[in-house]
Amino acid sequence: MNAGQTPEPIHMARERDHNHHMLYQMLLIRRFEGKCAELYSSMKIRGFMHLYDGEEAVAVGVMQSLTADDAVVATYREHGHALARGISACSIMAEMYGKREGCSRGRGGSMHLFDDKTRFFGGNAIVGGGLPIAVGLALADKVQKRPRLTCCFFGEGAVAEGEFHESMNLAALWQLPVLFVCENNLYAMGTALALSESVTDITAKAAGYNIEAEAVDGMDLSAVEKAANKAASRVRSGKGPVMLECRTYRFRAHSMFDPELYRAKSEVEAWKGRCPIASFIRLLKEKGMLTDTELHEMEERIAIEIDDAVAFAEAGMWEPVEELTRFVYSDRRTE
Amino acid sequence: MNSIKNTVKMTYREAVREAIREAMRKDERVFLMGEDVGRYGGCFAVSKGLLEEFGPERIRDTPLSESAFVGAGIGAALGGMRPIVEIMTVNFSLLAADQILNNAATYLHMSGGLFNVPIVIRMSTGGGKQLAAQHSHSLEGWYAHIPGIKVLTPATLEDARGMLWTALEDPDPVLIFENNTLYNMEGELPVDAGALDIDHALIRRTGTHVTLITYGASLFKSLEAAEQLSKEEIQAEVIDLRTLRPLDHDTFLKSISKTHRAVIVDEGWRSGGISAEISARIMEGAFYDLDAPVERICGAEVPMPYPRHLEEKALPQVETIISTVRRMVKSNG
Ligand SMILES: Cc1ncc(C[n+]2csc(CCOP(=O)(O)OP(=O)(O)O)c2C)c(N)n1
Q1: Mean pLDDT of B108-112
Q2: What does DSSP say about strands B186-190 and B7-11: parallel, antiparallel, or unpaired?
Q3: Contacts of B56 (CB under 8 A, 6+ apart)
Q4: Of B128, B161, B190, which one is at a domain's C-terminal end?
Q5: How many Cα atoms within 13 Å fall on the side-chain side of residue A82?
Q6: Cβ distance A187 to B61 under 8 Å?
Q7: Does residue B249 have an active-site annotation?
Q8: What is the domain extent for residue B136?
């Protein structure tokens, strides 16, 4: 917009940097996972692997509302959350390889990413299993009077589990600082929301527990960020938990074993037309905040970051088999 | 001898599917219920195609609500139906453990014999696919601890095909554990394959020097070990338990009276596992027949690690079976 004659106002520069940062994160997740799919085909990555394509705006948008002290609890579809939380691509990739340099020493794999420095508590592969953990983390903060929150991601499929309802009730009853983020991508494996819930409006369930809830377009990064900031500040104000429902869609199959018999190709294509990354790029360009050159450079930096991650994982070591049963109980330090 | 082919080639997965199909056709009270059994075709594709054949009333997709749909299966059984409830994997069955233990296994007794629960609950079990610490366990031995339920572990195509109908005819709750590494196993099944007894262990290979007692996926590792050992003139008898509860100890005690040595191969954890129970039964019933202490080859006592080399180390392997038997036989000829 300005052709360089007048210096850009400082807030504009900040906003642009922030937007570039978020775009970088979304693109990093997309490209990182594209690489993971390749590595899965070449058998470098094994087990179950669940990709996040299409849902990047949720993790990236919500993470903007968190501070370094907050805790995150995620599901088995958590590469995006881990990257957006700031866990290095290297240690995530090494984990997917099963190498000891991985964030969980290779013992967890794709579904079990953990990191203490960023307070990332998994990586939970039991649907609904993370919700009570989040309640407990928040309980510990409240009791110990620490001003921080716990952000808990879960899919809409988890809403059918008892653990969801029990956790909602506890968090509300005890007024705990939990930010519940439901990633509603409309399908739990092959089961459409309408076939699994008598009430398909997830926010209505929160209302049943007297928990404030808001639904937001999960394909719109700015909308997610805004809603997350609002929800997080309410949680921080001590008024108890808040739920944010992000309406989104996964572009890929549920996992690497899914023939996708349960949804129409045309539906997937229609949602791909709402790609959160493409929309955000369009928005930034319209605002004059992103040039093709900048985007190109960003892609190049991302490619390097991913190449480095793969090289790091390749060069990693295996845990020695003699240490198979380590970490079943804590190593006792003798001091 | 006629040359008409009287077997068909199929996978373990297809054998289970055929068993479900036959049961659905034979008895309209039978229905299948579980997560993604319908539109998705089953998480291991066992029920693929059944929705089209039987419709959504009888191939019933459920929400992610293990406790509720297992409990509902128990209720439906009490109400006169013959439910087959599918739980994706044994780890998820823990969300329904309350219903299985506190209701299915106890109703008959606590009602003084008034209410029996003719439910069948199927689930996959076992490691070997690098699915890590929340998807890979073998808890069938743990369920075998519970009086009031029966625990079946079909390993062969015949059993995958034949145990389900007998389980459905049983008046009481039956749990069927399908080892996830077996679904792709292919073999020949007689065209007239049908219901089989669920009360007896079977000798899958005869031998004279040692008795290998096993079940599930470990059966094939044991058979492979026995085959290799036979080249060294060590003849191992291999017993497939088939059912962990009630445990048919007569079959292995009789075998031990001939071989005088026993090795138990079990993917489950050693401490307090089914291998411990088997070993105790041997002490009680065959102590004076033994020429050597009973040996156990079990899953390592660790939540399953993800990387292949650690998972392999954590599971019983053919090599370990061979070296254990060799040591046992040589040191005590
Ligand atoms: C208790 C439990 N039941 C079943 C499964 C198998 N499973 C894994 S993911 C999944 C679907 C979950 O859907 P949703 O919560 O909507 O999350 P999404 O995968 O769509 O991100 C199922 C059924 C599981 N992991 N845990």
Answers
A1: 98
A2: antiparallel
A3: B38
A4: B190
A5: 33
A6: no
A7: no
A8: 8-190
Q: Which residues contact B314 (CB under 8 A, 6 or more apart)?
A: A324, B127, B299, B300, B302, B304, B305
Q: What is the CATH number of the domain that holds B225?
A: 3.40.50.920
Three-state DSSP state, B195:
coil
CA distances from A29 to A34, A80, A117 (A): 8, 5, 20
- Does the beta carbon of B158 lie under 8 angstroms from any beta carbon of chain A? no
CB contact at 8 A, B181 and B312: no
3-class SS of residue A276: helix
Whole-structure pTM value: 0.96
Prediction ipTM score: 0.95
Residue B70 near residue B87 (C-beta atoms within 8 A):
yes
Chain B 290-319, CB below 8 Å of chain A: which residues? 300-303, 305-310, 313-314
CB spacing of A328 vs B303 below 8 angstroms: yes
| Residue to test with chain A: of B48, B57, B64, B135, most A Cβ within 10 A | B64
pLDDT in tens, B210-249: 999 999 999 999 999 999 999 999 999 999 999 999 999 9
CATH number (domain holding residue A195): 3.40.50.970
Residue A150 has which token pair?
């716990």
